Amino acid sequence: MPSIGPIAFVVLFTLAASAPRAEAQSNPATGASNAPFWTGMSDAAAFERAMDARLAHASQLLDAMVAATGPRTVANTLRAFDDVQLELDAVGSQAGLIQS
To answer: For the segment 22-65, what is each residue's pLDDT rounded down to a tens digit?
Structure first.
């Protein structure tokens, strides 16, 4: 895939951020939303802050998993590990999409 220059990236990112969007729907029970991940991000700095927040959350989840006492269970180890992986995967995937 051809790469684009930084000016083209800023133009495309700005157009995507300012394009009209369908009303986002969310599920309060899960926190899930059908809004695109870039909703509300107006520039590269906002994207970086969002990705840094995901990485910080992954670090907090990992710290909590490591600090768990007692026997290891699906809930306190595997579920926690999966949550860390989900955050890291989201950062990688979203950064890759923006790069493309």
So the answer is: 444 544 444 556 788 888 888 999 999 999 999 999 999 999 99
Record the pTM: 0.64
**In 3D, which of 32, 14, 34 has the Cα closest to residue 23?**
34
- Reading the block at residue 72, the tokens are 């290891």
Joined tokens for residue 42 = 């107006």
Long-range contacts of residues 10-16, Cβ cutoff 8 Å, at least 24 apart: 10/43, 10/44, 13/38, 13/43, 13/44, 13/47, 13/98, 14/42, 14/43
Length of the chain: 100
* SS3 state of residue 5: coil
CA–CA gap between residue 82 and residue 25 (Å, rounded): 25
